[in-house]
Write a structure and sequence with these properties.
Blueprint lengths: L2 H16 L34 H33 L13 H35 L2 H27 L6 H24 L6 H25 L7 H8 L39 E2 L8 H4 L5 H21 L17 H7 L12 H13 L5 H9 L7 H5 L1 H7 L1 H4 L21 H5 L1 E4 L8 E3 L17 H12 L1 H8 L7 H8 E4 L1 H4 L4 E5 H6 L20 H5 L2 E3 L11 E3 L9 H6 L2 H12 L3 E9 L7 E2 L7 E2 L4 E10 L15 E9 L5 E5 L13 E3 L1 E4 L16 E5 L7 E9 L7 E12 L3 H10 L16 E12 L12 H17 L3 H14 L5 H13 L2 H14 L4 H14 L2 H14 L4 H13 L3 H14 L4 H14 L2 H14 L9 H7 L1 H6 L5 E3 L1 E2 L30
Parallel strand pairs: 1-3, 10-19, 17-20
Antiparallel strand pairs: 2-3, 4-5, 6-7, 8-9, 8-11, 11-17, 12-13, 12-14, 12-18, 13-21, 15-16, 18-19
Length: about 1050
């Protein structure tokens, strides 16, 4: 150590011994004298800084950067505080993001990293000098400051990569806490350091920081403009188009010259008519909002290249699957969600779906009959009469082609090879929705188009610095992004209802209002939603659409929205195996089949009957019967919907195809009879027990092109509601040469997304869409569930062990009774229900279902007796109260009936049928005002409830409120069923005995005998990849 250093240290020791005041003037790190203390005060001697000239400059620069950084931090915290306190004049808010704020967020990151580099460099240069002097306080505080700085940097980088979301709030708080600590640590370090700075320097630092903060806050206050609209939105809102016929805030009654305005009515003046869709601006929007097309010259060149790639792929295979249209920006932060969506049916909803393309073009080119509303729309928008079909097609496009329809492209011919036509349902097709107008469906959503991406460099091309800065700003302040694109409505079933609930209206079918597919009401009015007290089974908790179709899924690609490594699946798995089959996507087919087999449906060969008047022999696996050659027997096959939250099947049931295959195999392994096989031509056995609907047009021709505009009447339909069951009866006279031993009965529930007739139509109408197929494709057949039992021939076989199956056995008896009750077979239904009541006396289900059956049969004494038994087992059960209400209503004891329905509604306040029956009870009791209140509650839940409209009309007539009653009559007439239309079905049913059979309440199928020459081992239709379902012990192939 040199002499100067020894003198300085000696001076310091002398000062310490003499008790010099700590706050006396000294010299700062640059060697500048500070203020002198009072004369009476003993002063600390001026100590020369141990920093060299280079280090002093280094530190000055770092402190200058720190001034800006501290002011920047305080500005950002002020915004956060204003957000929390709701100070709208200053707060950033949920939907606005000032450019200054974003610039400060980005500079916070950039300058923060610069400051960290400067200060860590200074620390590395400064620490060896301090270490040699062994000044413990300086060393410890300096190292502590370095550690806190490390935490500050690491948490900042984490936020930069993982986003400052609610799930990562710990990182934000750790970052803020570290910032506070590092300022305090620096102050402490200087206070205990060898050469302490004078107080004036600290004051100057504070004043400089305050000055920069003042400038930032003033700048923010004068430039903050709240919600920043697009130029198109500003022009539209200035004209009041948001309240126009296509606007979010429209009042439909302003555009309709009628006293009765149905819920969900679309005025012909809407640019999106007949779809119920609106936009915030009330007019068309640029397709880029849905397809996320970037702007700028570089982006324009990239867009042209992408368009060329899309066209090339469409020409090669019939549709585009390689380009992530509408997700090229989203994938940067949401790789897992994007990868899931890329395989979904939602993605392939538009002209990238060859089946849909065939159907929509058939409508656009062939449905040219125009009613008054369509004519008014054509006139309003200056369209030619031959555009009527294209106008009607917008009824489909609201949910299938938003990128085209919302941009106004559906009124003109469509080039299917364009990016917009191949977009399908992109990310923003759902996430730009901010409102569902009501629960009547038909695409009745609003697209928030008044504001595009508010973050800086939103149009930057992927991989550029601008894109990186955009993502950094978004991750630093994701709340605006989340508020824009993740509304509370997105987590509700009502959001899904907008496209999964359909009604055909007069502008589309030139006929009348008809109900189309409707998964929403099938779910809402069920035990799955816990809104239906009349359900046979009540789940422990309510489920919504997203619980089943968007379950949590692992996110191995690092999606920033993941919580505990999981994201909500965007595969939207359901039943569509046709589309992945066309793409060769066996992985998606496997996932769909696993989804279908995951306790969704159960098949049970449960009983056998030997004569029409004989009681069934139930539980064939528990007590296998014996049959004789030449004997006529009937097998009872029960199919239970145990896990589907709406009807099975749902969706477009005119083209869906579910069915039972049932076969008998003798002891030699020879098939002796079958029902429900697929023929060599690919068509299903016309006498099969199917799960679908057969719909006819007004000429009595079947709807086989998904030509919804021609739907007139249903000839036959068979679906199973949630928690309900169906039974198929199979009759056969056994061969007289049936060998002794055992007879195996095997039933399989099979599924094909599209029936053969529709597949043939689609292939013929749109061969370009099936470019990779030389002939009509054989779509996958999926085995959902199976069951088989062994029956003795000339002797009995051993029963299957029932160990561990006690809980399941009562359900199987109950399901059989439910299925018989649904088909109106009261006498037979009584047997399984009695068995449940007898062998499971602690369960309310036996007496409850016996009470239901007695009430349907009109036997009130038995109904009341069984209700008393049920009440003893489980007092106050709302499902029992529902039947009490019906029994007392039939008995004329209306006060007791009302009390029962009110008890139901106390447990199930959204039970529409309980509200309706409460209204009927009050009407029958001549309490008409109270009846109207109950009917109003029914219609608030279901505005298309025709019986409620009718009964409300009667109540209003009784009150003398004739004008309101007239409106009720108009509503009833709109939603009523055209009974005369059934006449159209008579000839068709006469020519199609299989359809006629399925139109009956009780369906008995004659098994087709198989001659020895054609008999082989049991095979069934060739399944798709992974179709062989595992047998469950005691309930499947393992019996």
């Amino acid at each position: 150590m040199n002499g100067r250093g020894r003198e300085t240290e000696e001076g310091a020791r002398n000062a310490a011994r003499s008790g010099a005041a700590d706050d006396a003037g000294g010299v700062d790190e640059a060697g500048v004298p500070g203020d002198s203390g009072a004369a009476a005060r003993r002063t600390r001697p001026a100590l020369r800084s141990i920093l060299g000239t280079g280090q002093r400059g280094w530190l000055r620069f770092g402190l200058g950067v720190a001034v800006f950084m501290l002011a920047n931090t305080l500005y950002l915290l002020a915004n956060r505080l204003a957000d929390g306190l709701g100070l709208d004049f200053f707060a950033v808010g949920e939907n606005s993001l000032p450019q200054l704020f974003q610039a400060m967020v980005l500079t916070h990151t950039g300058v923060g990293l610069l400051l960290a580099a400067v200060m860590f460099g200074f620390l590395a240069a400064h620490l060896p000098t301090v270490w040699k002097r062994k000044h413990r306080a300086s060393i410890l505080t300096g190292i502590g400051m370095g550690l806190v700085g490390g935490v500050l940097v690491l948490t900042g980088l984490f936020i930069l990569t993982a986003a400052a979301s609610r799930e990562n709030s710990w990182a934000w708080w750790a970052h803020v806490g570290s910032a506070v600590l590092i300022v305090s640590a620096y102050a402490g370090h200087r206070l205990v350091s060898y050469a302490r700075p004078p107080g004036v320097r600290a004051r100057r630092f504070a004043l400089a920081t305050g000055a920069v903060l003042f400038v930032l806050i003033a700048w923010h206050s004068f430039t903050h403009r709240g919600l920043q609209l697009t130029p198109e939105a500003e022009a539209a809102l200035a004209q009041g188009l948001n309240e126009g016929p296509g606007g979010r805030d429209r009042d439909v009654s302003r555009f309709v010259d009628a006293d009765f305005v149905p819920t969900g009515l679309v005025p012909p003046e809407s640019p999106f008519f007949p779809a119920a869709t609106t936009t915030s601006t009330g007019t068309y929007l640029p397709s880029r909002i849905i397809t996320r097309t970037e702007a700028g010259e570089l982006a324009a060149q990239a867009a042209r290249e992408r368009a060329a790639r899309v066209r090339s792929e469409v020409e090669r295979r019939g549709f585009a699957a390689d380009e992530l249209i509408g997700a090229t920006q989203c994938v940067r932060c949401h790789p897992d969600v994007t990868a899931q969506w890329a395989t979904s049916a939602h993605r392939f909803a538009s002209f990238n779906n060859p089946f849909y393309t065939a159907t929509i073009e058939d409508m656009r080119e062939g449905s040219l009959e125009a009613g008054p509303e369509v004519i008014a729309h054509l006139r309003e928008f200056g369209l030619e009469p031959d555009a009527a079909g294209r106008v009607k097609s917008k009824w489909c496009s609201g949910c299938h082609d938003p990128a085209l329809m919302l941009a106004g492209a559906m009124d003109a011919p469509i080039d299917p090879a364009t990016v917009e036509a191949q977009a399908g349902l992109t990310c923003l097709a759902c996430h730009a929705i901010d409102r569902i107008h009501d629960n009547t469906g038909n695409g009745n959503y609003n697209i928030a188009d008044e504001q595009e991406d508010p973050y800086l460099f939103a149009d930057a091309e992927a991989g550029t610095l601008g894109a990186y800065l955009h993502d950094a700003a978004l991750k630093a302040k994701p709340s605006v992004h989340m508020a824009q694109l993740l509304k509370p409505v997105h987590s509700t079933s009502e959001f899904c209802a907008t496209c999964h609930k359909v009604s055909l209206t007069e502008p589309v079918n030139n006929y009348r209002w008809l109900r189309g597919q409707n998964e929403y009401d099938a779910w809402h009015d069920s035990g799955v939603a816990r809104n239906a007290s009349r359900t046979f089974y009540l789940p422990a908790a309510a489920r919504v659409c997203q619980d089943c179709h968007m379950p949590p899924e692992e996110a191995p690609l690092g999606d920033v929205s993941a919580e505990d490594g999981m994201v909500r699946s965007h595969r939207f798995l359901a039943v569509n195996t046709a589309l992945p089959f066309l793409r060769g996507d066996t992985a998606t087919i496997r996932r769909i089949e696993e989804f279908l087999r995951d306790e969704k449906l159960r098949v049970d060969i449960f009983a056998i009957r030997r004569g029409p008047d004989d009681d069934p022999e139930m539980g064939l696996d528990l007590s296998p019967p014996s049959v004789s050659p030449g004997e006529t027997v009937m097998f009872e096959v029960v199919v239970r919907n145990q896990g589907v939250g709406h009807t099975f099947p749902g969706g477009t049931n005119d083209s869906n195809e579910g069915w039972l295959e049932f076969e008998l195999v003798d002891a030699e392994g020879r098939r002796i009879a079958i029902s429900g096989e697929i023929g060599a031509d690919g068509h299903l056995d016309p006498m099969a027990h199917f799960f679908k609907s057969v719909i006819l047009d007004r000429e009595g021709r079947p709807i086989q092109k998904r030509n919804a505009q021609d739907i007139h009447v249903t000839a036959a339909v068979n679906v199973i509601g949630p928690g309900s069951a169906d039974v198929a009866h199979y009759r056969i006279t056994l061969p007289p040469d049936l060998p002794e031993g055992s007879l195996t009965a095997r039933a399989r529930l099979l599924w094909r997304k599209f029936d053969r007739a529709y597949t043939e139509f689609a292939f013929g109408a749109n061969p370009a869409g099936f470019a990779e197929f030389d002939a009509v494709p054989d779509l996958p057949v999926t085995e959902i569930a199976r069951d088989e039992v062994a029956i003795g021939v000339g002797g009995r076989v051993d029963p299957v062990s029932t160990e561990g199956q006690d809980e399941e056995i009562w359900v199987r008896y109950n399901d059989y009774g439910i299925a018989l009750l649904r088909e109106g077979n009261d006498r037979l239904a009584e047997r399984p229900f009695e068995r449940v009541a007898e062998f499971f006396p602690d369960r309310v289900d036996g007496p409850l279902n016996l009470a239901r059956m007695a009430l349907i049969a009109g036997n009130l004494d038995d109904a009341f007796d069984n209700l008393e038994r049920a009440e003893t087992i489980e007092p106050g059960n709302p499902r029992v109260a529902w039947v009490w209400g019906g029994a007392h209503q039939e008995d004329g004891t209306y006060g007791a009936s009302e009390a029962a329905y009110l008890a139901v509604l106390d447990a199930f306040p959204e039970d529409r049928e309980a509200w309706f029956q409460l209204g009927r009870t009050r009407y029958l009791d001549r309490r008409y005002e109270a009846a109207v209140e109950a009917f109003d509650r029914t219609l608030a839940i279901d505005p298309e409830h025709r019986q409620a409209h009718y009964s409300r009309m009667l109540s209003l007539q009784a009150l003398g409120r004739d004008e309101e009653a007239a409106l009720g009559q108009a509503a009833f007439q709109r939603y009523s069923i055209d009974e005369a239309a059934q006449a159209v079905t008579r000839d068709y049913r006469a020519e199609n005995p299989g359809v006629n059979l399925m139109a009956q309440d009780i369906r008995t199928h004659e098994l087709r005998p198989i001659a020895r020459s054609e008999a082989g081992s049991s095979a069934g239709p060739a399944p798709a990849a992974g179709s062989a379902g595992p047998a469950r012990p005691g309930r499947g192939g393992g019996r």
